[in-house]
Amino acid sequence: MNFAIANQKKSSLGWQDLHSGRRKKQRSVGNLNKKVAGKPSRHNLSRAKIIFELVSKFFLTGVVIYLSYVSYNFLTSDPRFKITDIFFQGNQSLLENQILDLVGPIQGENLFTYDLSKAAEKLAAHPWVLSASVQRKFPQEIQITLIERIPYARIKFKKVFLIDKSGVILSEEKAEYQHLPLIVQTSKIKKPGNFSGQKVIQGLKTMHYFNKLSFFEKNPLDTAEMKGQSRVIFSTRNRDLQIQMSMETLAEGFKKFTTFLDIREDEEKKIQLIDLSFKDQVVVRDRILSHTREDTNQIGGNSTHGQKK
After folding, report:
1. What CATH number is given to the structural domain containing 88?
2. Domain edge (last residue) among 43, 77, 111
3. pLDDT 10s per residue in the chain (309 long)?
4. CA–CA gap between residue 108 and residue 186 (Å, rounded)
5. Does 278 lie in the same domain as 161?
6. Is the CB of residue 219 less than 8 Å from the CB of residue 240?
7. pLDDT in tens, 199-235
8. Strand (E) or helix (H) holding 46
9. Which of the 8 DSSP states describes residue 195?
């Protein structure tokens, strides 16, 4: 009997211990959940950081845009940046008022909104202008710098025009350039729209080489008459000597002329025409006896003389 009661007590105590352990476990789990719930996760922190950075960037972008707008509005509207002075550099043939006519109004325009490249393009389109640049000079100035083409010769159609060393037609003849060599075109048109001065320039360069020779020191060549596309006739300043050449063999013709100077016998003889357009020979026509005699010097061979009546 006593044994049964003792066993019953032990069973009762074991059951209480089991319940007590469960309660302790539940309390510890509950405390752990509370701690976990009270502490933010790493994922939440990273997300909050990203949101903060985005907000900061949007804010800074807005500030920059606003400041840019305010600055632009200030620079483009403030009267302190209106153009008042224009400086010119490099212009010799073009007058300042002609340059202003080309680019249009400048004074009173805003220094920052004025289109520099457009103004430079307008200037460069003029025949006299080789290159042009337009620059801002703070706070109220514009600098226009030109490199002009240099007249190299005159060319005559129905009117006389000036051309540069590239054969570009610049303008009608000006009084201060009347000393330049003259090229006469047999064409009667006023001015060809598709004129190409390459052959003309070749002829002018040949004329320049001739004038370096002592033979033309006192009476240089100054006129070239173009005969179609194949021939050119050079004339001296005194109009007492002509040199005829083929446009296809200018270099060879010049060599033949220098050879002729070396082998000619009578240096005192007055010559009216030297024809260098024939192959391997120089035809010389005497000025005094031009109606009666023509001398033909064959380069590299014997001289021959022909009679004309």
Report:
1. 3.10.20.310
2. 77
3. 454 444 554 555 554 655 565 565 555 555 545 554 555 566 677 877 788 788 778 778 877 887 776 666 656 667 777 999 999 999 999 999 999 999 998 998 988 889 999 999 999 999 999 999 999 998 899 999 999 999 999 998 888 999 998 888 999 999 999 999 999 887 655 555 556 677 788 888 899 999 999 999 999 999 999 887 788 999 999 999 999 999 899 999 999 999 998 888 777 678 899 999 988 889 999 876 544 445 555 554 434 433 333
4. 51
5. yes
6. yes
7. 788 888 899 999 999 999 999 999 999 887 788 999 9
8. helix 42-77
9. -
85-89: strand order across its sheet: 85-89, 141-148, 129-137
Distance CA 193, CA 274 (A): 34
Please name every residue paired with 273 in a beta bridge, in sequence order, or none if there are none: 242, 285
Rounded CA separation 119/129 (Å):
13
Residue pair 245/253 in contact by the 8 Å Cβ criterion: yes
Q: Are residues 54 and 116 in the same domain?
A: no
How far, CA to CA in Å, does 7 sit from each of 11, 15, 16, 20, 268?
6, 12, 14, 20, 165
The DSSP-derived string for 62-106 is: HHHHHHHHHHHHHHHH-GGGB--EEEEES-SSS-HHHHHHHH---
CB of 207 closer than 8 Å to CB of 224 = yes
Burial class of residue 52 (count of CB atoms within 10 Å of its CB; 0-12, 13-18, 19+): exposed
What integer pLDDT is reported at residue 61 of this predicted model? 84
Residue span of the structural domain in which 91 resides: 79-148
What phi-psi label fits residue 159: left (phi over 0), alpha (psi between -120 and 50 degrees) or beta?
beta
- Show which of 35, 60, 77 is a domain's final residue: 77
